[in-house]
Amino acid sequence: MDLTRLEKLEWVVVNLEEICKSYFISRAINLESRNLDAGFEVYAPYRHLCNVLVTDFVIRWCKVFGTNSEEMHWKNFVPEADLEAFKASIYASANASPEEFHAYWQQMKAARDTACAHFTYEYVDKEMPLFEIALDSASAAHSYFVDQLIRLGVKRSHFDFKQFGETSSIGFMHKVGKG
């Protein structure tokens, strides 16, 4: 299917919003998983759902920030004139130097390649990277791409990215009787 640049950009923005929801909903489930899974420990459905959301978070983040060959990779949507400013906003939002962000990027790709999208036994007993840098970089990218959509005439508005995720998790937990 041939999508226009605008349609592709809208998909990127939605993907970034899904990253945010996956993070906050998985965090909320994780805080309550013992209670939610009580009586069903052998099945642990909420622990499983939490793990699925973590996997979703990693894979979706890597669609935008992973390898350059990804169709959703940010480099496909940031004009050359904006490149340095975009990267600077990502680093500033993530509170990381370019070197620190690159090291983190490698950790996230390794998590995707060895635990989430694929599996190798090397990853057993390894910790997932902390997700704050990924969430903060996704927030900065979301703001940039929403600006692009607005400039292209799409009726969009800015919102607090993290509050959006938090509200999503509150709504989810309310539906499962824990909010």
Q: What is the H/E string?
A: HHHHHH
Please, what is the oligomeric state?
single chain
Number of helical stretches of at least 4 residues: 6
Please count the beta strands (DSSP E, at least 2 residues each): 0
The Rg value, from CA coordinates, equals: 17 Å
Strand content: under 5%
Average pLDDT metric: 93
- The helicity comes to 55-70%
Q: Pick out the low-confidence regions.
A: none
Shape field: globular
Q: Tell me the domain tally.
A: 1
Helix/strand-derived class?
A: mainly alpha
Largest sheet: none
Span of the ends, CA to CA: 41 Å
Secondary structure topology:
Blueprint: H1 5-36, H2 45-65, H3 83-94, H4 98-116, H5 132-151, H6 161-175
